[in-house]
Amino acid sequence: MPKSVMSTSEKTGPRSPAAVHAVGLRKSYGDKVVLDGIDLRIPAGSVFALLGPNGAGKTTAVKILSTLVRADAGEIRVGGHDLAADPQGVRGVIGVTGQFSAVDGLITGEENMLLMADLHHLPKAEGRRVAAELLERFDLTDAAGKPASTYSGGMKRRLDIAMTLVGGPRIIFLDEPTTGLDPRSRHAMWRVIRELVSGGVTVLLTTQYLEEADELADRIAVLHDGRIAAEGSAEELKRLVPGGHVRLRFSDPGGYRAAASALREVTRDDEALTLRIPSDGTQRELRSILDWLDSTGIEADELTVHTPDLDDVFFALTGTDKTEEKAR
Predict the structure, then answer these.
(1) CB atoms within 10 A of CB 181
(2) Count of CB atoms within 10 A of residue 169's CB?
(3) What is residue 13's predicted lDDT score, i.e. its pLDDT?
(4) Do the Cβ atoms of 222 and 237 come closer than 8 Å?
(5) Sign of CA dihedral 28, 32, 34, 38
(6) What is the mean pLDDT of the chain?
(7) Cα gap 249→21, rounded to integer Å
(8) Dist CA 182 CA 209 (whole Å)
(9) Which string of DSSP letters, residue by residue, matches 116-146?
(10) Which end of the chain, N or C, is less surrounded by CB atoms within 10 Å?
(11) All residues at 6 or more sequence positions from 38 whose CB lies less than 8 Å from its CB, including other chains
(12) What does the alpha-carbon distance between residue 136 and residue 15 come to, in Å, rounded to a whole number?
């Protein structure tokens, strides 16, 4: 299985500057190797997702990149700053939102924001202006005067990210930001993340929700046993896993039988009059199938493309049985 996939644009075009660049990142705790020499390159203004099962090293990677934990080895640059030589410079360009909210429930949402402004040494007037703008941006103005303990899970997460933005970071590390949220709140958080990136912010996202990575990430790296098992866009990763196919459905039994006898490596369903043709879903393969249908005069009533999803990729790369994992 290849460890990374490179798109055509990356092979031929200039690469975007890296907001985060790590080479040979290693970390162990006693005899336990958590990160075993991983490389990361996150282009500026993009969303990069780290996927992996519990204990794969996702949170450790975030803690190292955000200066909270020292790496055992590796060369790391974040926002143009060498992490080992200039950790304070790194802290000046990043924001971090962890799995557990940093919101103080005993004070109001506005007071949480103003406290963060004080920590960033903003003048009082500027701190109030920034707090008001961010509360409005994250749809929290109406709740700003209420204790944060009264907020829903989604509101607390939005406040958490708003607090992270007080210092104007160019790079944000989001460590499983939607854990515990209901589907509506999770989708609202996705909208927030997209808006951040459209404003030029770079996001490193760790998540166990494969749909989340599929929805948000420009590139995805799958961590397994401390190493990167594969990296690429969601579509590129899906093509690593067998199981993709084109499904042809017929209403005319004669056309179905003619196609079934002429096509190779086809799986038949005589009852439903459908054929499954192995395919990775590329434009070239689809064009070949369509050209063949045109040349023979056989008409299929429906053509659909089925590719493996990120669930399939995740379980294939991490060596976990999909049925067993979903039953846990």
Answers:
(1) 18
(2) 19
(3) 45
(4) yes
(5) positive
(6) 86
(7) 48
(8) 12
(9) HHHHTT--HHHHHHHHHHHHHHTT-TTTTTS
(10) C
(11) 22, 24, 25, 57, 61, 223, 226, 227, 228
(12) 35
What's the pLDDT score for residue 15? 60
Q: Which of 258, 275, 227 is nearest to 50 (CA)?
A: 227
What is the end-to-end Cα distance of the chain in Å, rounded?
27
The two tokens of residue 20 are: 């985060």
Q: In the chain, what percentage of residues exceed pLDDT 90?
A: 48
Backbone angles phi, psi at 160, to 5 degrees: -60, -45
Q: Determine the residue type at 244.
A: G
Rounded CA separation 312/210 (Å): 10
Q: What is the tens place of the pLDDT at every residue in 160-173? A: 989 999 989 999 99
Q: What is the pLDDT of residues 186-238, one digit of tens each?
A: 888 898 899 989 989 999 999 878 888 999 999 999 999 899 999 999 888 88
pLDDT band at 328 (very low <50, low <70, confident <90, very high): very low
Rounded-to-integer distance, Cα 28 and Cα 205, Å: 22
Q: How many helices (H) and strands (E) does the chain have?
A: 13, 14
Compute φ and ψ for 275, nearest 5 degrees.
-125, 140
Residue 37, C-beta contacts closer than 8 angstroms, at least 6 positions apart:
24, 25, 26, 73, 74, 227
Strand pairing class (219-224; 73-78):
unpaired
pTM (predicted TM-score) = 0.75
Dump pLDDT digits (tens) for 127-161: 999 999 999 988 899 999 999 999 998 899 889 98
